[in-house]
Specification:
Length: about 150
């Protein structure tokens, strides 16, 4: 039991020195973000990178598409030239460019059991992630209610 408490306390994000500020709270912690390509997810990702550059890593769960790998989707998310798409990351490119290297795509799908994660990715996330932001949702408004609830609330 003592060993378990030591491990839990070592991974805690609520140390008194970390909770003095938002930036201090997230410093040296790894985050998993679902829904990073959506409106809310983009805002969360931008805010974390801009305000908390000492974050250890941000893993974003991405669904591969037929014509794009998760790596291509990440690049599109960060570098998309369309107006109002990637410009939210411009200040980060200037002030904290190294934080962009801390974003890691993870192949998954929130509508699948165990988030559609491979066993290897699941273990990696369990061992590394301290904080989870679930911002994914379905945007199909004619989806059966049980599917929409399952995806949105998981």
């Amino acid at each position: 039991m003592d060993t378990m408490n030591v491990i839990i306390n070592a991974n805690s994000v609520n140390d008194s020195e970390k909770s003095d500020s938002i930036e201090g709270f997230y410093a040296n912690n790894a985050i998993l973000l679902t829904g990073a390509t959506g409106f809310v997810g983009k805002g969360i990702l931008e805010k974390l990178m801009r305000v908390c550059p000492r974050i250890a890593a941000i893993f974003i769960l991405l669904r591969p598409k037929k014509d794009q790998t998760i790596e291509q989707r990440l690049r599109k998310l960060i570098d998309d030239p369309k107006p109002n798409h990637s410009e939210i990351y411009d200040s980060i490119r200037i002030k904290h460019p190294s934080v962009l290297k801390k974003i890691h795509p993870v192949k998954g799908d929130i509508s699948l059991p165990d988030l559609g994660l491979s066993q290897e990715d699941r273990i990696m996330l369990i061992e590394n992630v301290n904080i989870l932001f679930h911002a994914a949702a379905t945007v199909r408004f004619n989806e059966p209610l049980n599917v929409a609830v399952g995806v949105t609330i998981y």
